[in-house]
Amino acid sequence: MKKKRSLLRDSNGNIIPSKEMVLKVDRMLKNLDGLASPASILQGCPEAPGIVLEKSIVTPLDRESKNYKKIVKEYEKIRPQFLAALASHPVGKSLSLLAVGKEGLELMKKGKVPKKNLGTILDEDGIRRNAIAFYNVKRLRQSRLETIQDSYNCHHIIQKSVLSKNHPSPNDPSNLVLVQTFKSNNNQMNPHHFWHAIFLHPQINGNTQTPQPFYAVRPLFPIYPPIQKPIHSVEQLRKELKILDPQATLPLSWENKIVAFSRLIGEQPYQIDQKYRKAIKLFQKIHSKENKEPSKNLHIRNLAAKEASCFAKDWLPAGAIINGIKLPSNHKPKFILPIIKSENKMKWEVASSRFYTKDNELKNQALYR
After folding, report:
1. How does the average pLDDT of the chain come out, rounded?
2. Backbone angles phi and psi of 11, in degrees to 5
3. Which terminus of the chain, N or C, has fewer Cβ atoms within 10 Å?
4. Within a domain: residue 121?
């Protein structure tokens, strides 16, 4: 056992998370497990599967303030431990294997975010196959050879750039999720920046440290998306998991939720609709080197929020604030997502979306066959 950069590591270089972090991750997984049923996931929106909106009152922070810089510094310190604790937890390990594979799990153990596996590639059916084999049979598209480095990132449910009345510490594991952030192929597999660009940035842009209602995106899985290929049944899930690790298992509740997620999105891996891509790219420019200068940064922030505002209205409920304007009480979003209030109970809105159903036959479908 050796100490490296103030973190305890074993002989393989894997981080040994603190007891406190292990307990926090365990509590986070248990809370997530109780947050939604497989049936409620199956009733969701295929365009944003396996997520709910979490309502809170927040106050945006000045990014130059000591408070914000302290939060960022704390986050950089705890992130490696969070990843290692998630990877070492019995349930977290199995969920990690299904979401990011063996290579991703090994990186998490070392406190690093998983990278896109360059040795394999996702076929059109969502199954991961060897990239060289694709090339040999001329099925590998040129766009799949892009050199952009794709990785996962830790996402704050309640952003670290705001103070929340209900979340005293934005860096607590209960407020973190590991999410796919693949910028290649025009962000089609980048739910992380989809959430920021469409849901989050338009809500707080232009707010000068005034408390406001805020609807955060909360995934119902600790790693998102939870799978990289279709999972049609619990039996298939168990078989896939045994291939990855013969000792790995999952509680039935998690198995059913993963199957429900897979059935909701269909036969393909989850992808971001093309209509959101321009707004996502504008959001990404906020953090580019050429827009670091304050006046340029403010301009691109306003531009990104304006581009995303019409989409934000499709997703956010009445009372939400978009670009400083409160949505009226008679506003009906196009897509209906469950809203979690402070007591962590879901409030299912009256459906107006074609993606939402209360079909009892679907709701009571046996997911584990």
Report:
1. 85
2. -65, -15
3. N
4. no
